[in-house]
User: Which sequence fits this backbone?
């Protein structure tokens, strides 16, 4: 499995540690899930934006075809 090193300030690392402990999870699991959630959210937002653009430009695209 590929790995990734991410650097945090001491303050960021302490906040990550506290949040992971509060959820009863490891820091690695917490950080992994946060990154995956961010990726999913970005994909969802892109898909919604693309759908909106296609809908708004539908008539123009039809006339240009």
Assistant:
């Amino acid at each position: 499995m590929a790995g990734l090193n991410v650097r945090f300030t001491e303050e960021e690392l302490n906040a990550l540690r506290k949040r992971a402990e509060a959820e009863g999870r490891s820091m690695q699991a917490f950080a992994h899930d946060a990154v995956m959630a961010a990726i999913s959210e970005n994909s969802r937002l892109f898909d919604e934006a693309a759908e909106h653009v296609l809908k708004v430009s539908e008539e123009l695209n039809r006339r240009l075809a």
Summary: The mean pLDDT is 91. Residues 7 and 39 are 19 Å apart (CA to CA).
